[in-house]
Amino acid sequence: SCKKLGHYARVCLTTKFKQMKDRNQTKQSSYLGDNDRRQVLNLEESPESHQDAHLFSQLSFDVIDADQRKEAIARLQIKLSNRPGIHNLKAKVDTGAQANTLPLRTFRNMFPEQLNEHGVPQSLSDSGTVLSAYNGTEIKQYGTVVIPCRYNDTPWNDTQFYVVQSDGPVILGIQTSVQLGLVSLHCIVNNQSPINDVETLVRLFPQQFDRIGELHNTHHLVVDPNFPSHVDAPRKTPIALKGKIKSELDKMEEQGVIKKITEPTEWVSSITYVTKKDGSLRICLDPRRLNKALIRPHYRQQTVEELNHKFHNMKFFSKLDAKCGYWSVKLDEESQKLTTFQTPFGRYTFCRLPFGLIVSQDIFQLEMDRILEGCEGAVCIADDIVIFGRTSEEHDQNLMNLMNTAAQQGLTLNSSKCAIKQTSVDFFGNRYSREGMKPDPKKVADLRTMQTPRNKLELQHFLGLMTYLSHFIHDFSSKAAVLRDLLRKDAEFIWEPHHQVALEKLKQEISESSLLQYFDTSSPVYVQCDASLQGLGAALLQHDQEEKLQPIAFASKALSSTEQRYSCIERELLAIVFGVERFHTYLYGRSFTVITDHKPLLMIMDKPLTAAPPRLQRMLIRLQGYNFSIKHRPGQDNLLADSLSRLPSICNKQAIDLDLRVDFIQFSSKKQDELKQQTKQDTMLSALVEVIITGWPDSIKEVQPDFTTVLSYRDELTVCDGVILKGFQVVIPKQMQAGILQKLHTSHLGQQKTKLLARECVYWNNINKDIERMVQSCPACQQQQPAQPAEPLLPHEIPTKPWSTVATDLFELKGKQWLIVVDYYSKYPILQQLSDQVSSNTVISALKKIFAEQGIPSKVVSDNGPQYSSYQFMMFAESWGFTHVTTSPRRPQGNGFVERQIRTIKSIMKKASDIQLALLHWRTTPISESLPSPAEILMGRQLRNTLPSKSPNTNVAADHIYNQLQQRQNVQKYYFDQHARRSELPTLSNGQKSRILDPGTRLWKPATVVAGAGGERSYVLQSPEGRLLRRNRQHIRPDLSEAEQVTENSQEIPSKADNTDTDTLTTTGVDVPPSIPNISPQQESSPHQPPAMRPKRNIRRPRRFEDYVT
Predict the structure, then answer these.
(1) CATH of domain 218-439
(2) Cβ neighbours for 186, distance < 8 A, ≥ 6 positions apart
(3) What spans are recorded as compositionally biased (Basic residues) (predicted)?
(4) Can you name the CATH fold of 993-1089?
(5) Contact at 8 Å (CB) between 205 and 418?
(6) What is the pLDDT of residues 48-70, one digit of tens each?
(7) Where in the chain is the domain with CATH 2.30.30.140?
(8) Residue 992 has pLDDT above 90, yes or no
(9) Which CATH superfamily is domain 443-646 in?
(10) Could you please report the per-residue DSSP string of 232-269?
(11) What's the average model confidence in pLDDT over 1070-1078?
């Protein structure tokens, strides 16, 4: 021995210097050739060297010059930020140094601009590391600087140097020397210093444990170009978790796993988070859409069967676990953008390979196989590495070779999961030892602890399981005969000692025999899961050579008292969670199939996560890290898991922590107690609770008639603390529904908004109809409703001859009063100025003068102004023999034709200097390309104006004029109806409670329908104060809060058209027909026909607003 601490005599660089020199010279001549200009240097330890190196290593160097002191000096090529070009730097290779150092004097020569006035470096990065020599003396440092370096043709390496106060040379540590290709390590283990525990290994390789590694290769994710990109909708984050999420994101960003991104990306996924045992969160990517677009490389990993022969005659085993294996794989820039995910604090991307991607396992296994290639005595599947050897020395040599390879490749390990130099090792479901290979005893432990059957049914399940596995048990029929006798119809179930003996013997044989298949990583995996009221059962299955499903492992668990109160669907999903997590070693990172006998689970899996009840949602989150599909199989074909669930292990009764909070029911304690009590007292709901817990019948015919309305969403129903939940919605008992409706309508929103609010928290059958009825009948909502949209246009009937129907109205311009009369047929306007005092007599006098010249028309249409609704005007109409028709008050569109004429006349009178000449030109202007002028239609001749004209053509066909007028009216109706409601408002009944729109306050006030008012869509109503008001149907709403008060005998009032003959209502009370009551003097005229409209865009309301009521 060389008598130095930590030195191995066989590789000591001091005592064996001469032997190493001779050996190296011989080695040099063997591969460099004669007169080779390169020289292999043998190191001699100098007094300046650190002596805390990996002294078990034998070193060899390539292309290194030697000086007279026999030190390893390498000429590096470097790049300096302050000087162009490539420069040379001499550095001493010291394999005992764990860091690179740059003396202060050298730094001053290289970076003079970074010195202060005292020659001290400034703006250096603070390392936070203490440098010390072998004897413990601290080395003074100023910080770190990064310099790009390379040796010969190696890639450029950004190398970190510590700027130190030293008189020595520039020193390159072991890690940089390996990266630059200056040093290769060949491990020789000394028998006198074996590696027997994890602590020793960590002490030898401190940089390779308990940190995230960084493998050399960078990987690219390939996306199917035909698959559209997707951006997940933002998800709500609980306020209480935002702090923990931010802390975990900062930690991952500091570790270099993720980085923040602000530029747009085509792919944005969501995050999921799971609470760990220590209360912290694990941030996961939810890449379901991205996984569908990624193209898998389908890298084939070795099966356990292919590796078994390597364990032959091995006696010493070690097991290593890669630390955050996926996160040690780097992604290129383009692939990083694919992994973008959104958080409450912005968007991030993964710089490393994230968990959950469908390609992650393939890429990571490819990297692990590449790293372990050439490592003798080492096998790897996923992140589990096993090292073995026939002797202790061989084991240590293989282990050190692997550790050196890991150091070169950037692979790091998890010290808490490593086991060193064991006599046996558990590896992917098998236990390997010097005696050979056998199944892991933990896998069959559940079979040994199955509790004793308590009745015939449980015994049937046990024997069914044994029969399924009978080909693994010798002479099974005779061994199970004594138990089978208890299943006879005439046999009483009495469990006696000999039954227990037979049971224990079968359990012992089935657990001790080699009945479990070796796990095949290349074969499809199936997990059979089932739940009963007593427990959960799961079985891991794979196909054998005969394509029959054979068990790999069993698992069962007794339910706690709390879990026994879960609903049937919750227990079934809990069984899947239990089975998948129990077989995590086999299932994580690969696709597999879950087999269940509970068909509603298939529907739950297809729905969005947010649609599931809270407890189911928590279970589904725990399953998101696994890639599996679910398949239904009837209970009679699900024997393995079914038997394990009905006879669960009595030693495994600990509840599965779901971290579930039920404080989403925002009720006071008193209200929650009332909710539970009312649910219990409700006959239908109390029976439904029992069905939810025990399970739904297999056949719909067996379901109670009361539950037929529940079948469509039965898979969403759960029971939580005596309250029924439909997803996140609380099912409200009938006695509490009226109160909940009032709470939902507290803000008096419309039907759609109230329904949306209800969907967030409560539910009962026909809740939408109840909400509609409640909103429609709310007095406050009815009073505050906006005006009704216009009904389809109802045009006046076109006359068949001139001057048979005329419209009249009054208007004021420039302080003067005017009377206008327009012919409906010819559109010919006649204007008459009135005196300042416009009364009925003044209007009658003007009309008499016009009628004396043009003749008496058959019908005169006007509004309800006092001049036209007076008794004098009624007598004038009667004495002159024409019918007077008025339009509905408060509705100018009823007399829209004359209103449009007044607008044109006002425009002419404001612009023209000679009003009468302007009116002449207007009357002689053709109505359209196909219709002559109003004067020609009315008088049958063309009036002469100031413009030159040809001989007048008085042969205008009446049929042609009528058809053209009808076509113009149809066009007007078409464009008007584009902005009106699709159908007419329903006809009102006599005595019907209604509401009318107050033109002043714009509120809907109560009134009662009294009669029709001589006009289409026009009614007479009585206010609560006794006033009689005439209103158009557009200004009337049925009072839905009083709808039930309308008697069955009430009759609809067929209101007459505005253009039909009818007696006008007067305010004087004189000679009013008995069928039409007096109307308040406050009523005003309302024209009927809307003005002609120019064509506009066809605006259609989105269909999603069709049921929206405000």
Answers:
(1) 3.10.10.10
(2) 57, 58, 60
(3) 1094-1103
(4) SH3 type barrels. (2.30.30)
(5) no
(6) 333 333 323 333 333 344 343 45
(7) 993-1089
(8) no
(9) Ribonuclease H-like superfamily/Ribonuclease H (3.30.420.10)
(10) PPP----GGGHHHHHHHHHHHHHTTSEEEE-S--S-BB
(11) 36
